[in-house]
Amino acid sequence: MDPARHRRRLLVALFATAVSTQSPSPLLLRYADVLDLGALTLTLFFAAYAAGLVPSLLLAGPLSDRDGRRRVVLGGVLAALVCTLVLVAADVGGVTFLVVGRIAQGLASGAVFTVGTVWLRELSASDDDAGPARVRRAAAVASAVMASGFAAGPLVAGFLVQWGPAPQLVALAPSAVLLLVGLVGLRGVPETMTDRRPGRLALGVPPVARRAFWAYLLPVGLTVYTYAVLSLTVFPLLVAAAGFGAVFALVGVSALLVQGSAALVTPLATRLGPVRAGPLAAGLAAGGCGLGYLAVQPGGWPWVLPACLLIGLGEGLGMTSGVAVCDRVAPPDRRGALLSAFYLPVYAGFVVPTVLALVSGDALRGGVPILVLGGVGLLLGVVLLGPGRSALRAAGATTATPLAPVLAPVDGTDR
Asked: Signal sequence: where (predicted)?
């Protein structure tokens, strides 16, 4: 089979998985409204997704380093299809199906995103005609496709939930169809991890990358979903409480803004390099929280849109710079493990709305906790400017060329 066809088939699977992970967001908001579950329960649905991601991120990368990329990605896409069907059946199974489906969805998507990213890069590098620039271009296509999935999934589902018939049934139907197509298409895509690592899994951060991880990768990872998930939970909940009606559609548009701007900003991240892109990501996240505070005030809902724009720009810069550093500081046989470790703080952001709801209580309605989260973003920027910059210079990763990030494309140009 043509090597280009192999890459296209993997891209379809990555797109389908990206669509399936974000499509449930408007539907979860609807269930919270129909079942009168409250803000805390809604945020727990997103925390459940993160709970599934943690073991997946810890194990999927190292497992693929040892046993190969293909087995992990195939299993992940199949599991994502089953999870989508469970969420469709939540109209009958209720809250239990929602929680179980979201935990399992985290397990599946963590494996596909981590290992699929590495697999695509290696498929491109294994092509006899491929040079470094061609490998980067292929990675850029993958990143753009996945970013499109993150944006398109909740946009389509949001409109179906807001205005479609039987939203609990039709909202996730496109995701299920896409996953089935992606699963069938992975047949024949070859394994790239031919030099297997026998024995126990090599978990955790490689010793050579530990300083860069704690001083840079951890704080920059926290700038990604910690703030992006506000557009799916806290913002729509508080805007609805302030009197805005079409909140399900707003979730879809907000996700489109966040993920679309994350994709578009990546060429800038490539030119800036990790040293500058990381602190800028933290500053943009803080600015998005400032606008988000205005958005949740009575009549302030239009501020949601520029808030999501700033948060999305920060998300794209943070993810791109973090994955670039992973690609530079990890040895090839530990790249999957380090990327998995980086995704832990990235996806820990899904727990943040639950923490805000638990800690702040009724104070959340006024929006002050959003400002506090903005202050945390500023502190992360200080860490990235100081210890983070020093760690990158020590590791020689100040001009790292990005691997394909999960959220946004790279332009494939040399710096």
From this structure: none
